[in-house]
Amino acid sequence: MALTIEPIDPAAPAFGGEVSGIDLTRPLSRADAAAVDAGMDQYGVLVFHDQDITDAQQIAFSTTLGPLEVKKRPGNIRKASESRLGAGIGDLSNLDKNGKIISAEDRQWFFKLGDRLWHSDSSYAVVPAKYSLLSGRVVPSWGGRTEFADMRAAYDALDARTKAEVEDLICEHSLLYSRGAIGFSEFTPEEVELFRPVLQRLVRIHPSSGRKSLFLSSHAGTIVGWTIPEARSFLRDLTEHATQREFVYSHSWKQHDLVMWDNRSTMHRARRFDRTEVRDMRRTTLAGDAPTVEQVDA
């Protein structure tokens, strides 16, 4: 059966594609890898159903599409010794290293709650991530959706004056900003240093399609040259604009779904779920292309 990609919602055919005719437990052909890349350029988000894969198979599929991201600075407060998964797999579950549900009073749980804010993966890194691939190994009976916003469409819908205003703006991104937004501010001096802000353009140009998009995230805490109150007010307005229902796809997870998205053209957030149930989600992340501040508007 040949690989095919169809719009998830025919009423919104430009954002979100459903992939069929592929088995991620098997090696990916060059033709299929090219089709997946083309689908990502077109849809921004791709959904693969019924993919009962291992960590090794998820890594194999991911690396067919590009190298895994290797972070120079961590994206969480969990130490390597506390991880329950091997190298290359990010643990987005509500489980500790022993496979038990994390306590509601655990510092790591507080930190994870920041994922419920709209964000783009690794925007707090000098070179932000390319693709993220999330596998639903165990899903709760209620809640736990992941929502995605099309930042290309959000940019296109801006009025001409706002497009001109945002064109050359540079923002500072840091995990300190996103976690501070939910009231988590108890960082160690070492963590404050690790999470020091990086610069990102507010308008990105996709290297494949050439389309412009807004590069927003809860990690964005200020705009270079602006006062913090004015910057945060403006960024909040832009986020409200970019996350209107017409720009959003909300994914309701089924066990063994794999969803991948392009961080260069989307933003996403996790939604609430019954925290007394296991939610075992595992992510691989592909390395980004280059720092956004180096992009050239051709």
Describe this structure in words.
24% of the residues lie in helices and 22% in strands. The longest helix is centred in the last third of the chain and has 15 residues, at 228-242. The protein has a single domain, classed as Double-stranded beta-helix, CATH 3.60.130.10. With 298 residues, it is an alpha+beta fold.
Short note summarizing the structure:
By secondary structure, this protein is an alpha+beta fold. 24% of the residues lie in helices and 22% in strands. The protein has helices at residues 30-43, 55-65, 107-112, 151-156, 160-166, 175-181, 189-194, 228-242, and strands at 4-7, 17-20, 45-48, 90-91, 131-138, 146-150, 170-173, 198-201, 203-205, 212-214, 220-223, 248-251, 258-262, 266-270, 280-285.
Name the descriptors:
seven-stranded mixed sheet, 298 residues, 15 strands, globular, three-stranded antiparallel sheet, Double-stranded beta-helix
